[in-house]
Specification:
By secondary structure, this protein is an all-alpha fold. It is built from 5 helices and no strands. One of its GO terms (cellular component) is membrane.
Length: 147
């Protein structure tokens, strides 16, 4: 005996999870576009406009991060890249893990790693001392006082 299938049975079910997935999808598109601009400018300033990769050293980074503008620029790259990547891995975990317990713990693991990276990166950017004591003047930016 077969049960007849109605059009109501074939209709998509309403989501009870709110709009999180919609906002996550929009975030991926916007953050991807923003990251494209941020990273291209970052690479251009660090490698093309300067003297190339061989001149990127402590003094170069210290000189750059002495400016609040570049700190905020690199902060934006850090946060957008980590959140964009974490959301992408979260979607992959949701697509490929068949057991809800595994999905939960993998998502917790990736979110914990993201939080640690955001904390470490943010602290590095905003607590960076461009003129540390105990360094020779040849390794410091030109604006630092001589040791």
């Amino acid at each position: 005996m077969s049960v007849p299938v109605t059009t109501q049975d074939l209709a998509p079910q309403a989501s009870t999870g709110g709009n999180f997935e919609k906002f996550a999808w929009i975030f991926m598109r916007l953050s991807g576009a923003a990251l494209l601009v941020l990273v291209i400018v970052h690479v251009y300033v660090n490698l093309v406009a300067g003297d190339g990769v061989h001149k990127v050293d402590f003094a170069f980074v210290a000189g750059k991060w002495a400016s609040t503008f570049w700190q905020v620029w690199d902060f934006a790259i850090l946060w957008l890249a980590v959140l964009h990547g974490t959301n992408g891995v979260r979607v992959i975990i949701a697509d490929y893990s068949s057991r809800s317990v595994v999905r939960f713990w993998l998502t917790m693991l990736i979110c914990s790693a993201a939080v640690l990276m955001l904390i470490a990166g943010t602290l590095t950017i905003f607590t960076f001392d461009p003129c540390p004591t105990g360094r020779t003047s040849g390794h410091l930016p030109s604006f630092c006082p001589a040791p």
